[in-house]
Amino acid sequence: MKQLKVFRSLVKDSFDVVTHGTVKYHIWMGFLTFMMLVGMYCYSIQLNEGLSVTGMTDRVSWGLYISNFTFLVGVAAAAVMLVMPTYVLHDVDFKQAVLIGEGLAVAALIMCLAFVIADMGGPSVLWHMIPGLGVFNFPNSMLTWDVIVLNGYLFLNITIPFYILFRHYQGKEAKSKVYVPGAILSVFWAVGIHLVTAFLYQGLQARPFWNNALLGPRFLASAFAAGPALIILVLAIIRNFTAFKIEDKTLKKIAMVVTVAAQINLIMLISELFKEFYAPTHHSESAYYLFFGLHGKDALLPWIWTAIPLNVLATVLLTFHKLRNNPKILYFSCFILFVAIWIEKGFGLIVPGFIPGPYGKIAEYTPTGVEIGVTLGIWALGAFVFTVLAKTAIGIELGELRFKNNKN
Amino acid sequence: MSRSNKKWFSLNLSRKQNDDSGTCGCGKTSGGCGSHSNDAEMSEEEFYHAAVNASIGDEREKDGFDQVFDVKMDRRTAFRKLAASLLIGAGAVNTSCSMLSSDESKEKAQIDWEEQFKGNYKLMTDDEKKNTVDRLVRSYQLRTGKTISMSSKNAEEDVLFGYAFNISKCQGYMDCVSACVKENNQDRNSQMQYIRIHEMKDGEGLKFDEADDNYYHEVPAEGHFYLGTQCFHCDNPPCVEVCPVQATWREDDGLVVVDYDWCVGCRYCMAACPYDGRRFNWSKPEVPEEEVNHNQHYLGNRMRKKGVMEKCTFCVQRSREGKNPACVEACPTGARIFGNLLDPNSTIRWVLENKKVFRLKEDLGTEPKFWYFMD
Ligand code: SF4
Ligand code: SF4
Fold first, then answer.
1. Which of B116, B208, B238 lies at the smallest CB-CB distance from A359?
2. Under 8 Å between Cβ of B314 and B161
3. Domains of chain B, first to last
4. pLDDT band at A320 (very low <50, low <70, confident <90, very high)
5. How much is the average pLDDT of B252-281?
6. Predicted ipTM?
7. For the domain bounded by A2-397, which CATH number is listed?
8. Is A147 an interface residue toward B (CB < 8 Å)?
9. Among B122, B240, B248, B310, residue to substitute to test ligand 2 (most atoms within 8 Å of Cβ)
10. Do residues A129 and B244 lie in contact, with contact meaning Cβ atoms separated by under 8 Å?
């Protein structure tokens, strides 16, 4: 009962905290709410008319939604890069960063689920997928694996920070005996969600562009670059706008993680390009389409040729200590790296899988306004969730939010 | 049954050997699929029916979970009660808003309700199959005033359907395509077509990437030959493996079918099919009422809704009645041959034994039951 009371008071307090703030904060939240409403409006159009309002067709049957989903799974998985040293190796200076990282993971996972639902043709029969109520094609379908690991990971990433914050809220220490096993589990789990998501595509013999053994590892590398890059940016913003203290040392360590991951990612990219272009086979056509266009169809060229130079530039900048240790350059390279990987792992991965089609037909894909609206709405939802979580967490960590027990 | 006396080359790469035994088609080997017993759940059902206050036969509804385990689950009970009370609420609102809410609209609502929460067709007993088909027929009648006939005929024993396509004969008339569209009530708006005819240049072999599968000129065009593709009803279908809810499966007679009411529209199967065999309803499919083919099968050409997958079923509504699919019948050149692979006297067996046949992308191990040959 007492726990319940504490919880109720926590919810109330956190509601207070998130509804109060500076003018800038209110503008930010108002903007996000507006974007979410736009997204909802676009989604209602999609519900009414069907998925025909998107740019997807029988030839390219997955598009912007699944691209974003794939990318965000990576962002979610990256929280682990911070969890590991903090909880397990007792590397204290990661501790503040890790709460932020896990909040980011929760927001990213919520976006993932929202994107999957937005992509479904029949959201009203989604209960067919709930194990126990519907028919769950486990273990045959990788999609069912994905449902399990994503929800499990969401659960872990909600409970661990919640436990810690809940203890801190009451002014108690969080017992490491309780959360360390969970943290270790989530380390493996994070690798799992990413591999399983890669297997979703990798297991399709019909799509040679995806059906290659490097897909899983490359997913991991790019995730561990893009995720922490985003965390660095977020931490920089938090450091600027709140009293929450994040030491330079923390940022530097995360930057190190980003650098190594980006380097590995680049090596794998080279290996992939070599395979596709040194001895091109029939199966290299998708890669040709992506990088050079096929038969005059080249919708993806501007995208990929933005992504590759950004990716290389960011990796080079990060590789030199001098440059990396300069915060301005660090933030800049993190930003371009994030954008580059978003393009590469989203658009650049999903769409070419369908082009050329099974019989070589090239039908291009361009997202429509409605699709972009829904996508922006979901991103706004993620940012909104994250802001709420982060604001509460920061409040508790700074000691502004404490349970006041009247009885003693 | 099909594996033991195969008469065609097989890579034996199949990931899983189905040894479905007995009459149960659910493919479960352990634990029972729930299609053999008929007990339990009456009280709930009574509650359910009392709640919706209308009746359309007293069949029992089972969801996937019940079908799989055939046990009463608290969760399920709770779910259903919740659903029933929601319906009472909705019904109350409905009646208070419209004074004219007739018996018919109640019946419609009742049918919609039961259809929304019915189980997966693959796991239904024959009675349940019949019930859902009756509901759909009645629903169509209530909505349009027209009577359709819908079958829920199961696969027959010792039947395995196969198809052969004579490349030398096909002239690209596309009569098969229009016959297919008519027969299978395909969406006219998006011009959905299961069959694609690829026009290729003579002397260049099978160059699919340079072929035109969407031509609008007089055929046969000089210096070209034609080849048709559609769903090949793979014996080891990758599309079936990937479906997260088992909304698509291989029937015992080899047909790969979709339960349009169970599909959640994730399009994973579409990505998994190497043969461009699947079509998605991106918007509500529309067929002018006077063009609707009223002779339907649950797994075949019944009306689809938006957001679900569909595909060629070898015209299950015809083939299970012993007829040829519409494309075979419509082809003016006799390029299309359909029949029972397990019948040694069938034409298709003659073709397989006497012609040099080949299949597309055999290296993928999907084992299509669709062969090509030349005279
Ligand atoms: S052709 Fe495609 S849709 Fe048809 S059974 Fe094979 S994999 Fe499935
Ligand atoms: S689209 Fe339908 S049939 Fe295809 S995999 Fe998804 S649920 Fe299954």
1. B208
2. yes
3. 1-119 (no CATH), 161-373 (3.30.70.20)
4. very high
5. 95
6. 0.90
7. 1.20.1630.10
8. yes
9. B248
10. yes
